[in-house]
Design a protein that fits this description.
The structure is a homodimer. In chain A, the strands form two sheets. A four-stranded antiparallel sheet of chain A has the order 2-5-1-6, sandwiched between helices. The first copy, chain A, has a two-stranded antiparallel sheet with strand order 3-4. The longest helix of chain A is centred in the first third of the chain and has 42 residues, at 70-111. The model of chain A is unreliable at 116-128 and 704-725 (pLDDT under 50). In chain A, helix 9 (284-309) runs parallel beside helix 30 (707-715). The first copy, chain A, has two domains: 3-182 and 361-677, no CATH class; 233-304. By secondary structure, chain A is mainly α. Chain A has helices spanning 3-29, 34-37, 39-43, 60-67, 70-111, 146-179, 205-216, 231-259, 284-309, 322-330, 360-391, 394-400, 405-408, 411-430, 434-443, 449-478, 482-487, 491-499, 504-524, 526-538, 543-550, 557-574, 581-602, 614-639, 645-649, 651-672, 676-679, 689-695, 699-702, 707-715, 717-722, and strands at residues 190-194, 221-228, 269-271, 281-283, 311-319, 341-344. The interface between A and B is large, with 40 and 41 residues.
Chain lengths: 725, 725
């Protein structure tokens, strides 16, 4: 790619970005769009502009984002969002500090280096063009100028260590602050118990669980919920809610029809058969009313059966203080580790109830099977990616799709296509995967949604690193040199290292496209806006339905994290080879910080809170990128015939491992469980245990009036008699 | 080695064994020796023969050993000893079940195989002699008879899995039983805290610790002991105890001298200077009396200073119930994992106080440094072992020490020397190491003696496997084939496999020597008996000194375990190659069981109790031996040109790893910490916390009358005021 097509690409991206910015400014001012651009504030009952000055200024949102503090983010969106900002600003800091030194030092060193034109150089195919001149590939083999690059490798590494360490400490503090808050947080009083052994003869499951915990915690055990197989109750509950919605809708339609000069209104009819298409014609409102009554009775009956007869081998246990709950979650309860396994309870809204009764070994087997499936997925995707990078050159396209020739040959279109085609193909391709990986992660038997999100993100990260980064880089040269790898697996690193410079410009464009177009779309929310207006116009009748149409969703870490991580890996790996990429990385994370601040404060609503458990996941991957970078640099310096490489560069990955080891030792365990020193802080009020307890009852078991009596009766037989202990 | 020298070796060993047995029968009957042969019973205040029938029968001890139950062992010697018997009987079971199948099946298969005399066969140098005929080396390469050996490999493996699983379950039960006992065990109410951060301004260490735990455990925290630097107090205490002993001794000498017709007696004198050799001559009794008074005052003053000013960053915390203590030991207390680290308290008698204040990272660095030293030790010992196996052939001896020629050439002596020389050299050599390894393990910063014993045993195990087993086996052929290993590290296994049969007879003799002579010495206690009588006659004056002279010591797991493990590894690795070794293994562990039962019930006094924590250590090493065996069998079958090897034998080590993984998942954690279900069992009395607390005060701080006041004052300032919380 030459300079002009690179600049065209950048220019077009920037143009799109400016258009989207303008759209955002224009659209977000119109009151009917407020629900899309200020969803979070509206849901919290705030006026969209309450407390904000000068909403008319098109750049007001930037000032607001910059003025907001971490405490604001935590208040509005929780610790997880704040932790994500720590991640963004840490990476931003790493890139900024690296760029400040590397760009002014390395670019001149590389650009003024004498050119050695080998036939088979390691840089882009063809001659050195203007961009490649600024890369390390332009420096002569064995030249003393390489020392500047060695120092740069160290600088990037130590900046990363320093900022990661600071961030880990800071996030530990955020998590501790949140967990020691004096607010009552229901999940802090509960633990999950799984793998309960078979019920002994003459006891119910409920009695077994209650007597077990009553013996261990005579003073602090409050009550328990035995997990039940709710599938049938859930189905009935879902049907019931459906009819309720339909009823509300019909009533509104009926009310509207009465206004239109027809005082009686028209009552619509429906058919009782399949999908309302066949069967007897009846009055809709009456029919739904009847159905609802019927289903409520059915649900109540089913609830009784479920609670009594469908108890399974898992339970939620409640304690009347936080210290006991958090100590219990960390302690071994039974001599056999695979029974009565106890863990911290996630928030009720993020529990995946179906996964709770899965057995210890079943979980482990599922995990390994799924790792294997993911492994296969990652490696069979290699093939399509290979095809894409082969297809997406213009010459190939012209050959394969000759009818496109006249279009492609126009110079304007040609440049644009040349700049975008490969990147667009890649981005579209990557959109297919997350749901599949999410499904797989759920199938592992993980009990909380936040953990599933992390597991998905982890799998997706492997995928993107292997397929996008390594795949694109090595892809073209891989097959021809496959035999040399078979002989000596170490040459894989050398291969990666020598293929790196060739793809530098590709990734430069890739990153620029991601931030200009990606963040432009993110900020302007064009897609949700259009969807909302279409739905509102043609589908929604009730308030409830409108609300659903503009529901903003959460940050979707499962895909956001690996996307950002891919950029982290690309930028960090190219930081020394092609320092030009660093400013792009800075802009990427700078824009992300700004736009995400706006979105977090005004749009997204987090669907769970894991108190920063995401952080070790992020930290590990940044460190892994650093190690990948250090390893490829060893290979690349070797390829550059820089003979001091082994003694000087090999210590770096070792230092990284030691750094990781110390961080893990010092910080990690607190992210897995709550420290007692944190849990023992005083609460501002005595917790109402009844409320805590009820918050964990799934909606399908608690929705109707009958519940009071029923739960008193069925759920707390033992704890009631237990109170006389 | 030919058959006759093998039989001579066996015969001589057996003869020595019989002589030692006879000595035991004769000596143990004599009342003045009872303290050596019945130490444990005497220390427990029992009559040596109380409850035992027919002490006159020379084989009575065998009947008594066989009649004793596991409960007897636990009662007399604790869970650790019982667990050791589980280990012995498990290994005995493995060898017995293997022998029952392998000996009658494989010996005929091997012996009737046609001999293929290759020049470079893998068996002993020279021709097949009578013993080697019964080994797998005698079977032709690629012969279908090898299938019998394949089946045998599987049989041994599955017998091992089955018995290890059963044993692990049984030991878990023993540990649970002991920990849920209704007796008050002081250490179950305490935890150790290490890595306490620096004292905040305006607080004492004591206040810091007490307020920290009071906040977390307002109702269950009882009191704390801050670990102090006792080195000075210990020195004074040691001096004081020394003078007390000397005084007692002088008083007895004086009393004796009065009886001998001299009514005034002779009062001995001593000099006040260095070692009593120089300086002023004074009356001993008066001098010692004065010294003791002086030292008591000095100790009291030092105790006050120590308790107040020498507090360090570790403490023992007491709780008033077992569940809290065991949950606390398993919970994270501070957000930073490297501060306020909490662990289960070992028994007071096995705490290594000096190691408690060592810091988190100091401990880790020490550990790695020591691993490195051990690694060096293991590999530099290779060289002497190599020398020994080169020297200890008679021909070499004759060449190097020609003056021995006339002695060696006598046929009787020649046979004996030929049979014993290499083995004796090896055994002597191995006796040098344990103390060094024990010292290293202590320097790691491990806080309990039982853990140090395990760490030492682990290091010693590596040593003996690498140097004795692999060293002797491969040693001779290693140097000549060193280059082939360099080219292909995998060939190490093949090398080991092909060298195995050659050393079979060596190890046969080695095992036989170990059990006949080793257990003969163990049972007859000749060495302790002679030492005791010598000391009693020439050194001991006071009762106390006599008691010290016959103090039996404990089982010394640090050396006993690796010794037995070496035999386990040898026998299991040779089980299929030379099935003749199995009966030897059976006799070894059969005799060990019998003789150790006798010694445990009547002689040894355990110096600590770790509630079976030794077991995972034993189990892991048995499993490791099994995996070593399976791997070498893969190599050996490959060397035998048995082409079904990869699909048929390679799954075995994989199964072993899965087995180990499951066992670890299911059982291991309970051996690291106490399950709450176990800790919550009721006690038969309310524990006297004052007694629990006092049991942890080191003797040098608690020996004199002043303690009451002092400890009340200095140790429990906060907990006293705390009781008004």
């Amino acid at each position: 790619m030459d300079l002009s097509s690179f600049l065209t690409s950048l220019g077009t991206s920037f143009l799109i970005f400016m258009v989207l910015m303008f759209l955002f400014t224009w659209l977000s001012r119109r009151p009917e769009n407020h629900v899309v651009y200020y969803s979070n504030r509206i849901l919290m009952g705030l006026d969209p502009f309450e407390g904000l000055r000068a909403p008319r200024n098109p750049f007001a949102w930037i000032r607001e984002a910059l003025a907001s503090t971490e405490a604001d983010v935590i208040r509005v969106s929780g610790v997880d969002s704040a932790v994500y900002f720590v991640f963004i600003s840490t990476v931003l800091g790493i890139f900024l500090l690296s760029a400040l030194v590397l760009v002014p030092v390395l670019l001149p060193v590389a650009a003024t280096s004498k050119i050695m034109m080998d036939a088979n150089d390691t840089t882009s195919v063809g001659a050195f063009d203007d961009i490649d001149k600024f890369s390390m590939g332009h420096v002569q083999e064995g030249s003393p100028r390489l020392w500047a690059f060695v120092v740069a490798v160290y600088w990037v590494s130590f900046v990363t260590y320093y900022l990661l360490w600071k961030a880990y400490k800071h996030v530990s503090g955020l998590r501790a602050q949140a967990l020691m808050s004096s607010e009552v947080k229901n999940e802090q009083f509960a633990v999950l118990v799984r793998d309960i052994p078979p019920v002994p003869h003459g006891q119910t499951r409920k009695e077994q669980v209650d007597s077990y915990f009553m013996a261990i915690y005579p003073e602090t055990f409050y009550r328990s919920i035995v997990v039940t197989d709710n599938s049938k109750a859930n189905a009935i509950y879902g049907e019931l809610e459906g009819y309720k919605k339909k009823l509300a809708r019909e009533e509104i339609i009926y009310a509207e029809s009465r206004h239109d000069g027809n005082p009686d209104g028209t009552r619509s009819t429906t058919r009782t058969g399949f999908l309302g298409l066949i069967g007897k014609k009846v009055d809709s409102i009456e029919y739904y009313d009847e159905k609802i009554k019927e289903l409520i009775a059915k649900l109540e009956a089913e609830q009784k059966v479920t609670v009594k007869d469908k108890q399974q081998c898992a339970a939620v246990i409640f304690f009347n203080n936080r210290v006991t709950a958090s100590a219990a979650a960390q302690s071994l309860h039974d001599t056999m580790v695979d029974t009565w396994t106890v863990m911290e309870a996630p928030e009720p809204r993020q529990i995946i109830w179906n996964n709770l009764p899965k057995h210890f070994y079943e979980r482990q087997i599922r995990q390994y099977v799924i790792y294997f499936i993911v492994f296969l997925t990652i490696f069979f995707y290699m093939i399509p990616i290979g095809f894409i990078s082969a297809f997406t050159t213009l010459d190939n396209l012209k050959k394969l799709l000759p009818f496109l020739k006249p279009v492609i040959n126009q110079p304007g279109i040609k440049t644009v296509l040349e700049a975008y085609l490969p990147q667009l193909a890649l981005i579209l391709f990557l959109a297919l995967l997350p749901n599949f990986l999410m499904f797989l992660s759920k199938a592992e038997g993980i009990p909380s949604k936040s953990h599933v999100a992390r597991a998905t993100s982890g799998k997706y990260f492997y995928f993107s690193i292997l397929n996008v980064f390594i795949g694109v880089t090595v892809g073209s040269t891989l097959f021809s040199t496959f035999k040399s790898i078979e002989k000596d697996p170490n040459s894989l690193i050398t291969l990666l290292a020598t293929s790196l410079p060739g793809s530098a410009t590709f990734f430069l464009t890739f990153v620029a496209l991601k931030f200009f177009v990606g963040y432009g779309l993110e900020l302007s929310r064009i897609v949700p806006l259009i969807t909302f207006h279409l739905k509102k116009r043609y589908l929604c009748k009730t308030e409830e339905e409108v609300k659903e149409a503009w529901a903003p969703g959460d940050l979707e870490y499962a895909t956001r994290v690996p996307d950002d991580m891919l950029v982290v890996t690309i930028v960090i790996c190219y930081s020394v080879i092609a320092p030009l990429i660093l400013p792009f990385g800075v802009v990427y994370f700078g824009l992300e910080w700004l736009i995400l601040r706006n979105q977090v404060l005004k749009v997204y609503v987090p669907s769970y809170e894991s108190y920063g458990r995401l952080w070790p996941h992020l930290y590990t991957r940044v460190l892994a990128s650093l190690i990948l970078y250090q390893t490829t640099m060893v290979g690349y310096f070797l390829a550059k015939k820089f003979f001091y490489t082994p003694p000087i560069l090999i210590p770096l990955p070792i230092i990284s491992f030691i750094f990781g080891f110390i961080c893990k030792n010092k910080f990690y365990r607190f992210f897995r469980s709550t420290a007692l020193d944190v849990a023992c802080r005083e609460l501002k009020e005595i917790p109402n245990m009844e409320v805590v307890f009820r918050s964990f009852i799934p909606p399908s078991l608690s929705c109707e009036k009958g519940e009071e009596y029923q739960f008193e009766d069925a759920l707390s037989l033992v704890s009631r008699t237990g109170s006389t202990f």
